[in-house]
Design goal:
single chain; 305 residues; alpha+beta; Sortase, Chain: A; eight-stranded mixed barrel; 27% helix
């Protein structure tokens, strides 16, 4: 029986082969153990060229413990991961787009609501123009006495004029005329809103829709000349340069008479608005006849006058 050699008796080549065989046996045991446990291993080629000096010095490195994360990912898995990442990016972009559109939609809805709630201030205007000049009536000396003169109104328009007589009169505001003074003919009278039959019983009436004292436009005032105080009886005595003062709750405005005219009851164009502050005083004419109108025109006195 061959006697086993000791380590000192072995040659360098024999020692080298012995170490290689032991390493292979040890590696084989580990591989079997990894296969049984289902673990993934990384196999490195044998380094048979290691020198004996390296073996003796203990610098020969054993295989590192295998890692289940050391193997490269399969190609399909990489493609799937990339696809999932792309889907996530698209989903995030879509969500941001939806949020942006939602914010813009809410902003537009808020603007529409504000537009609906904030309405422009409308300037009240008469539904229709006057058909005849105000203050018309039959003379107090007529058989039936003084009363509204319907004969001045075209027959087919009389029902319309009668229906307008029931329109509510607006309440006086702080900028509307309250009183009129004409020293040249001794007038100092109250001003009321509206120039219908009932309003002119109380004083001088301001035509609804005409401008206020001091403002651009035509303020139209009327009164009777031979009934209800005969306030405007002497309008025909006014001369150019006479002063008419209109009082509001806060101010007084002076108008300078510029002229007088006799017109027909249907010449309602004299009541139209103007592009400067003007005043029109209207009354029936002549005295106790009342088949025409007298109109006195005046303009606002400037501060330098």
């Amino acid at each position: 029986m061959r006697k086993k050699k000791t380590a000192d008796e072995l040659t360098t080549e024999e020692l080298r082969q012995l170490l290689i065989e032991k390493r292979r046996a040890s590696r084989q045991d580990r591989l079997e153990n990894f296969r049984r446990t289902g673990r993934v291993v990384r196999i490195t080629p044998d380094n048979d060229s290691s020198s004996l000096e390296d073996m003796r010095s203990g610098e020969i490195l054993e295989d590192s413990e295998p890692s289940e994360f050391s193997s490269p990912r399969p190609k399909k898995r990489r493609l799937l991961d990339g696809l999932l990442f792309a889907i996530e990016v698209i989903a995030v972009g879509g969500l941001l787009f939806i949020l942006y559109n939602g914010i813009n939609l809410i902003r537009e809805l808020n603007q529409e609501v504000v537009t609906v709630l904030v309405q422009p201030t409308l300037t009240p205007t008469p539904l229709i123009d006057a058909l005849v000049l105000p203050s018309g009536h039959t003379p107090p000396t007529s058989p039936q006495g003084a009363r509204p003169n319907d004969a001045e109104i075209p027959e087919h328009l009389r029902p319309l004029v009668q229906s307008l007589a029931n329109i509510p009169i607006p309440t006086s505001g702080p900028e509307q005329a309250l009183r009129i003074a004409i020293p040249a003919i001794g007038i100092d009278a109250p001003i009321v809103q509206g120039d219908g039959w009932e309003q002119l019983k109380k004083g001088v009436g301001q035509h609804v829709g005409s401008t206020n004292p001091g403002q651009t436009g035509n303020i139209v005032l009327s009164a009777h000349n031979d009934i209800f105080g005969e306030i405007f009886r002497n309008l025909d005595r006014l001369k150019s340069g006479d002063i008419v003062t209109l009082y509001t709750a806060q101010n007084a405005y002076n108008y300078v008479v510029s002229g007088t005219n006799i017109v027909e009851p249907t010449q309602v164009e004299i009541m139209e608005s103007t592009n400067q502050p003007t005043l029109s005083l209207i009354s029936c004419y002549p005295y106790l006849v009342d088949n025409q109108r007298i109109v006195v025109f005046a303009h606002l006195q400037s501060e330098s006058n």
